[in-house]
């Protein structure tokens, strides 16, 4: 799991997003969107102690962004 850089405690998962052609699709809302090569998935976490919110993108998808 992800740890808060300020408090050094485990952050709680909030939600997952998929970015497709500049649109944001929230997973878990009942709508099925097919994945495409240009889609980028991220996960959002919050620290239960200090409230810090961080968004994480998998490393392989970050490489895709760097190549744009």
What does this 3D model show about the protein?
By secondary structure, this protein is mainly beta. It has one domain (12-66). The protein is 12% helix and 35% strand. The chain has 1 helix and 4 strands; from the N terminus they run ββββα. The chain has one helix at residues 59-66, and strands spanning 12-20, 23-26, 40-46, 53-56. A 4-stranded antiparallel sheet has the order 2-1-3-4, with no helix packed on it. Strand 3 (40-46) and strand 4 form a beta hairpin. The radius of gyration is 14 Å and the shape is elongated. The relative contact order is 0.27. The mean pLDDT is 77.
Task: Tell me the fraction of residues in β-strands, as a range.
Answer: 35-45%
Give the beta-strand count. 4
What is the overall number of helices? 1
Describe the sheet with the most strands: 4 strands, antiparallel
- Number of structural domains: 1
**How much helix, percentage-wise, in residues?**
10-25%
Return residue spans where pLDDT drops below 50 for at least 5 consecutive residues.
none
Q: What general form does the structure show?
A: elongated
Average pLDDT number: 77
Please state the CA-atom Rg, rounded to the nearest Å. Answer: 14 Å
Task: Provide the spatial order of strands within the biggest beta sheet.
Answer: 2-1-3-4
H-E order: EEEEH
- The end-to-end distance, rounded to whole angstroms, is 29 Å
Structural class: mainly beta
